[in-house]
Amino acid sequence: MEALELPLIDLNGLKSEDEREKTRCEDAIAKASSEWGFFQVVNHGVSLELLGKMRREQMKLFKAPFEIKATCGLLNNSYRWGNSTATCPKQFSWSEAFHIPLTKISEATCYGEFTTLREVMMEYATSMQDLAKSLAGVLVRKLGHKDSEIRENCNESTCFLRLNHYPACEISQEIFGLVPHTDSDFLTILDQDEVGGLQLMKDFKWVAVKPNHNALIVNIGDLFQAWSNDVYKSVEHKVMANGKKERFSIAYFLCPSYDSLIGSCKEPSVYKKFTFGEYRYQIQQDVKLIGHKVGLSRFLL
């Protein structure tokens, strides 16, 4: 399979006193969001030391016995293995994860014996939230709007972290670590290790993403595609299992409240207006009935 490097953007440009340099950086973010739906960033403001501490804590967590990880109450009882709705191999994800609301990560009672994870995760979530809001603000402003609405509606009460572990899979190289999907948020920030396995749909074919341990990956979600009237692209992606190596990643999801109304930034709109809660409910119904997410096409006018 063809392996590509995602567009690489140095975010030092956003802090530049040279307006031309700042504009070039903002233009690069908007261009990558329109043409790829994915890009990677360096000089992003999240310290490498913090990323390293978070990865070590994550590995310690996933190496615990299944009985401990699945204990009621651990990280808001958010542990999941595979996907319970799968009815055939192509719907199954060879992975385990904790999908944690930011509202819960400060609660000491959620951590059980993993006491050192709490402080690191709180610092990590704050750094990712700042970065996500900065990038979202750029994308909103590039389409001529103020970023206050997204900043106000996407905060620690609405966003999520997901800790991912993809064990080595000797069964088949065709097994999904994570089934093909688009993200249902505004945008996602991914910190992945050097193993690789992430693939995305580019020009109607799957391409592998070359890992870059110095960069964070950013991808556009369904809500930004709907809000931008298809200017920004929420691109289908997946993770392939590795036959010999395990893989770790952490995803931050920039989400609004469930009652937030998602409308187009300009008319005529491609999509009818919907709340994030309505969108999530439709996804859940589709997965329950047909085994996979349908997404934005359900809301076309």
From TrEMBL:
Domain Fe2OG dioxygenase residue range list: 155-256
Keyword ATP-binding attributed: no
InterPro entries: DIOX_N, IPNS-like_FE2OG_OXY, IPNS-like_sf, Iron_ascorbate_oxido_reductase, Oxoglu/Fe-dep_dioxygenase_dom
Broad EC category: oxidoreductase
Top-rank taxon: Eukaryota
The enzyme's E.C. designation: 1.14.11.13
Record keywords: Dioxygenase, Iron, Metal-binding, Oxidoreductase, Vitamin C
MF-aspect GO terms: 2-oxoglutarate-dependent dioxygenase activity; gibberellin 2-beta-dioxygenase activity; L-ascorbic acid binding; metal ion binding
Keyword Oxidoreductase: yes
Transmembrane feature ranges: none
Catalytic activity: gibberellin A1 + 2-oxoglutarate + O2 = gibberellin A8 + succinate + CO2
GO biological process: coumarin biosynthetic process; gibberellin metabolic process; response to molecule of fungal origin
Similarity remark: Belongs to the iron/ascorbate-dependent oxidoreductase family. GA2OX subfamily.
Protein's recorded name: gibberellin 2beta-dioxygenase
